[in-house]
Amino acid sequence: MKNKKLLLLLFATLLSAGIYVSCKRFEFERKTLVSTDEILYYDDNVIAKGTIFDISPNPNITEYGFCWGINSTPTINDNKKSHSITKEKISFIDTIHYLTTKKFYLRAYVIDGADIKYGDVISVYFTVQQRLYSSETPKQIYDSGVSIDSLYGKTYQGGLIFYLNTSTGSGLVSAVSDQSTNAQWGCYGTEITGVDGTAIGTGEQNTIDIINGCSAVGTAAKICRNYSGGGFNDWFLPSTGELQAMFSNLCARGFGNFHSYSYFYWSSTEDNYIGAWEFDFVYHGVQGRSDKTSQLYVRAVRAF
């Protein structure tokens, strides 16, 4: 019995020592860690959040922040945004300005002595609209593999994209709302030379010719020319072909703040001395003719 008690006492002593050594070893081996908590998108920027936690017993943190790049495991040798020394558990936030790539990878990091610790990697994808905000052109985005349908209705250079020439990169945007709900085409009884253009690309010259050939005030063409949406002053009254594209690529897709009851929009395309062409945005985009004195809606467009 006595030997048994001695064995139990010896076992308890060894067990206690083991636990003590284990705990001391655990404390000694604690490492400073960092987590990549989340990202938020704001226009063409990314707001990244991270946390330094489980600080080592004798920290020597010289740097922390975020690193990012096009490789799936970015390091501080790629791109980084850093902060100065800290010895405390800390949450931190940085704004990462959009680069030229549509996708990159980001993670938090901390340097503690000779150790570099990284948080989990987060993939960062930018939307078409964010890429436009970052000064990529519609053609650059299209050439990167984005479908042209994904560009329609996006805000660009003062308006909403509704046409893109994928070869040249030129295109058209519509104003985001109507410039008038009751404008006349103007100059009833006068036929104006050169305003019969119907194709995409003819509306601007039509508008110039209308203004030069018609002195009436408050006409649809002059309303468009006087519009300065987005800080641009080169807006014009669209041709029938341009209105057709606007209907198909904006209105029919639910873009552009067009309403669900009878809206007839003036085009810059003249029919004759008493009439001009308008476009019905309710009954599936039907083109028609109206007297120049008719009071119709006006939506300006501009080229980019």
3D architecture notes:
This protein is of the alpha+beta class. The chain has 2 domains: 33-125, Immunoglobulin-like (Sandwich), CATH 2.60.40; 155-303, no CATH class. It contains 6 helices and 17 strands. A hairpin with a 6-residue loop joins strand 10 (159-164) and strand 11 (171-174). The model is unreliable at 17-28 (pLDDT under 50).
Topology:
Elements: H1 2-29, E1 33-42, E2 45-53, E3 61-69, E4 79-83, E5 90-97, E6 103-112, E7 115-118, E8 122-125, H2 128-133, H3 138-143, E9 155-156, E10 159-164, E11 171-174, E12 180-183, H4 203-213, H5 220-226, H6 240-249, E13 264-270, E14 275-280, E15 286-291, E16 296-298, E17 301-303
Antiparallel strand pairs: 1-2, 2-5, 3-4, 3-6, 6-7, 6-8, 9-10, 10-11, 11-17, 12-16, 13-14, 14-15
Integer average pLDDT: 87
Number of domains: 2
Give the ordered list of helices and strands.
Answer: HEEEEEEEEHHEEEEHHHEEEEE
- Structural category is alpha+beta
Beta-strand segment tally: 17
* Fraction of helical residues: 10-25%
Estimate the global geometry from the Cα principal axes: rod-shaped
Tally of helical segments: 6
Largest sheet descriptor: 5 strands, antiparallel
Q: Low-confidence parts, pLDDT < 50 over ≥5 residues? A: 17-28
Q: What percent of residues are in strands?
A: 25-35%
Report the end-to-end length measured between terminal Cα atoms: 99 Å
Output the radius of gyration.
Answer: 33 Å
Quick description:
Helices cover 22% and strands 33% of the residues. With 304 residues, it is of the alpha+beta class. Strand 1 (33-42) and strand 2 form a beta hairpin.
